[in-house]
Amino acid sequence: MTSLAEGKRPPAGPPAVVVDGVSKRFTLRHARSIKDITVRLARRQALSESFDALHDVSLTVTRGETVALMGLNGSGKSTLLKLISGVMSPDVGSVRVRGRVAGLLDVGAGLHPELTGRENVFLNGAILGMGEAEIKRKFDTIVEFSGVERFLDTEVKFYSSGMFMRLAFSIAAHTEPDIFLIDEVLAVGDPPFREKCIRRIRELRDEGRTMLIVAHDIPMLVQLCHRGVMLRHGHKVYDGDVADAGSLWQADKKAERGAR
Amino acid sequence: MRDARNEPPRDVRGGPSRDRLNEPPRDGPSEPLRDGPSEPPRDVPDVREPVAADDAELRSPAGDGGLMEVVHHRYLLKLLLRRELKARYKGSLLGLGWSYVRPAVNFAVFYFVVGVFMGMDKVIKDFPIYLFSGLVLVTLFTETLQAATRSVLHNAPLVRKVYLPRELFPSASLLVSLVHFVPALAILVVGALGYGWRPTPLGLAGAVVGLLIVILLALGLGLLCAAATVFFHDVEQVVDIVMITVSWTVPMVYPWIHVRDHAPHWVLQVWQLNPLVSAVELFHRAFWAPLSDGRVPEPPALTARTASALGCALMFFFIGEAVFARLQKRFAQEM
Lengths: 260, 335
Known about the structure:
Helix content of chain B: 55-70%
Structural class of chain B: mainly alpha
InterPro entries (chain A): AAA+_ATPase, ABC_transporter-like_ATP-bd, ABC_transporter-like_CS, ABC_transpr_TagH-like, Bact_Polysacc_Export_ATP-bd, P-loop_NTPase
Oligomer: heterodimer
Number of domains of chain B: 1
Number of strands of chain B: 1
Distance between the termini of chain A: 34 Å
Family (chain A): Belongs to the ABC transporter superfamily.
Keywords (chain A): ATP-binding, Nucleotide-binding, Transport
GO molecular function (chain A): ABC-type transporter activity; ATP binding; ATP hydrolysis activity
GO cellular component, one term (chain A): membrane
Shape of chain B: globular
Helix content of chain A: 25-40%
Largest sheet of chain A: 6 strands, mixed
Low-confidence stretches of chain A: 1-7
Radius of gyration of chain B: 27 Å
Number of helices of chain A: 8
Number of strands of chain A: 9
Largest interface: A-B, 83 and 67 residues
C-alpha cells in the first residue's frame, strides 16, 4: 500500500456528523414465553438484564473527514454506527447529520435471494437511498466493479458467497452518500477484490466524502483515516491521531489476550 | 459478546462468517504504525466541541416516521411491491394465477355449502353475486391485515441494518393485496353484468366509500399489529385466528335480516358497529341490490352507518399510524 500522507490532512469545514452526549442501553431478555418466565421466576433468576452499549459519547466529524472507530468486540462501535445511520435512536443525547447517510453495515442485508442480480441492483440501490435515474446511470459501473456480468440475470441465491458479497459491496460503494458508514466489510471476498474495495474507499475519501470506518485491520485504518476514535466498554477513551488510537487498540488487544 | 447477540444469524448463503470478520488482524510485529515518535496516547475528551446547535442542515438521521415518508420513497415502494409479487409465486407454474385460485376455491365452497346445500340460494336472489361482492372485500381485508402484521418482522435483516421508513413494509403489503383485488373486482363486474346488473351512480359512489373503509381499516390495524408483533410474536397468531371469523361476522353468506330475525335486538346493534359490515353492505348496494327482488331490503340507516364506519376506519388508521411511528424507533433493538 502506498503512503497516503497527502490525503491525511484533515479538512476544515462544517460538521457532517454531530453526536452529542449519546448513551444507549440494551435490555437482554432471557425469557419471552410464559413458560420460561415462570421457570426463571421459580428459580429466582433475573428475567432480563441491561447493559450500557454506549455511555455519554460525543463526537463531531467534519465534512470530508475519514474517521476510524476502534475498540475490541463489544466496545460499542457498531452501536454507534447504527445510531448515526438512524437504524436505532439514542436513549439520551442526540445524533445529527448533514446530508444523506448510507452504510455498508453488513452488506447484503438488502439483497433478496429470489431476485436476479439485475433486479437486486435496483432494489438494493433504492434501499440505500438512490433514485431510479441515479441507479440507471450507475448500473454499468456497479456491474463492472462487481465482476458478475455473466450472472446478472441469475437469481442471487445461486451465487457463490464471494459473488454475492462482491455485488452487495459494489452497489453500496456506488451510492455516493454524503456520509458513508463502513462496518467490518473490508474482509469481503478474495485479496484482489479487497484491494479494489480499499481503492474505492480511498477514491471516495479523496472526493471529499465523510466516512466512518470500523475494522480490525489497524494498519489499513491508519493508512486510510485522518483521525482515530477509540472506544472501550461504551466510553470514548481517545479521539485524535489515528496511529495513537491504533497503538491503544493494540494495547487493549494484548491485555485481553493476557487476561485469557 | 454484544455483537454476537445483536447480529442476526447469518444466512446460509451469507458469505464470510462473522467469526472471520471479527478475527483480529494477523499478528504482525508490534512496531510503531507510522514514522515519528508516537507519544503515549492520553485520555482526552473531544477537543472539537459540538458546534452549531442551530445549524439547520443538521438533522436527525432517522425520519420522524409516518406514512408521508412512504410517499417520498415511492420508487422503493414500487420495487418492494414487485419483489413481494415475484418472490411469492417464484418457481410455480401458475405464477400470479394462484391469486385467482384462492378466491375461486373460497367462492366454490361457500356457494355449494351455504348457497346450495343450506338453501341460501332460495333466500337471496342471485346469491353468487351477493356472495362474491362480499368475498372480494373480505379477502382484501384479511390478506392485507395478515401480510402487514408479518411485514416488519419478516424484513428483520433490513430493519436492523438500514434505515428505511418502516411504514414501507405494511404499505407494500396493502399494495400486494390491491393487486390481487383489481382482477377480482373485474370478475365481479363481468359476472354482475351477466346477471343483468346495471350500475347506478349512487351505488358506485357507495362502493368507493366501502373500499376506502376497508383500506383504511386494514392499513391502520395492519400498522398496529405489525408494530405489536415486533414486541410480542403472539400477535401474528392472534391475527390469523381472528381472520377466520371475518367471513362469518359480515353479511357475506347470509343477509342482515337473519341477524335481525334470529338474534336479540342488541346483537344486531353491536353487529352493525363493525365497519366491515357497512362496507360489505355498500358493495351489495352497488353490485347486487339492482338485481334484488326486494325480499332482502336495504339495511336501515345505511348512510348514517356508513358515516360512522368511515369515522371508525379513519380513527383506526390514525391510531395505527401514530403508534407505529412511535414504536418503530425501537424496532431495530427489539428484533
